[in-house]
Amino acid sequence: MAGDRVRLDQPKGRRRSWRPSWDPEEFGHASERIARFIGTGRFLIWMTAFITVWVLWNTTVPERLRFDEFPFIFLTLMLSLQASYAAPLILLAQNRQDDRDRVNLEQDRKQNERSIADTEYLTREVAALRAGLGEVATRDWIRSEFEDLVRELAERGVFPPESEERDR
């Protein structure tokens, strides 16, 4: 009786479904691999070789071994079937790429906003440093002020003139 009790502090276990299930991510990866392969020269070469062998087989071998006579209706059916599956797979791969591009674009936009904010902050800091340096006494300014002070004191007679100091 205690084992039949429903526990509210734990999630329910997964129920088995009679419907097939698949991982949408894995399906998307598979469609991208197929679309990537369809868009290669290797696929074109293999498809050309396949069609060439098909046509040569059905035109050159004895009639009893042929399986698709001249209008090649079965070949047309096979190519139509391949195209009907290829188009949605390519569109699915493009949609997934668009989603990735959208995410990358958003991340780039945010990074650019951070870079602009950092640049503006650094610009303000440099401007503050320049303003602060305008108020800082430099070595040359202090030296010129001391020279002016010594000259003024020498004129008042407090210090001997510079020429007398050098003679000593």
TrEMBL record:
Domain of life of the source: Bacteria
Entry keyword Transmembrane helix: yes
Keyword terms of this UniProt record: Membrane, Transmembrane, Transmembrane helix
Database matches in Pfam families: DUF1003 (PF06210)
Biased composition regions of type Basic and acidic residues, renumbered to the chain: 1-12
Transmembrane spans: 43-60, 72-92
Region (Disordered): 1-25
Keyword Ribonucleoprotein: no
Protein name: DUF1003 domain-containing protein
Species per Swiss-Prot/TrEMBL record: Streptomyces pactum
